Amino acid sequence: MIIGMGSDLCNIERIASSLARYGERFENRVFTETEIAKARRRPFTIAGTYAKRFAAKEAFSKAVGTGFKRGVFMKDIGVVNAPSGAPTLALTGGAALRLEEMIPKGHEARIHLTLTDDHPWAQAFVIIEAIPL
Question: Of 11, 16, 34, 28, whose CA–CA distance to 88 is shortest?
Fold first, then answer.
């Protein structure tokens, strides 16, 4: 059963401006080490790479119904790739706890994530599903 759904649209130029103005301070406040490493391997598309991940974090916060409140922080939500190469989320801290609270007993969470960009926009959709064990 679907227990949460969220989407977000992020302006790549806004992320580029934040990177230019705040640099590593912005990166370290918002993104995980894995996300930073991946973005830095893509110097010509770094803002787009970050914008998609920023949108994914926002979409997840909407899917769990908290936004960035109740202990859910951007840095607790990391975009990673499954072995198949598909994007998914790795959760820690308050984000992981909030997801755990939402899942009914006898179920496990499955997060579906899709990312796209077409300059100047990046977009993410998150669907959270509860799967019976």
Answer: 34
Under 8 Å between Cβ of 7 and 123: yes
Q: What is the pLDDT of residues 91-116, one digit of tens each?
A: 999 999 999 999 999 999 999 999 99
**Bridge pairing between strands 121-132 and 2-11:** antiparallel
Whether the Cβ atoms of residue 61 and residue 71 lie closer than 8 Å to each other: no
Task: Give me the domain span that covers residue 116.
Answer: 2-132
- Does residue 76 have a known ligand-binding role? no
Q: What is the pTM of this model?
A: 0.94
Phi, psi of 113 (to 5 degrees): -135, 135
The CATH number for 39's domain is 3.90.470.20
> Annotation-wise, does 58 bind a ligand?
yes
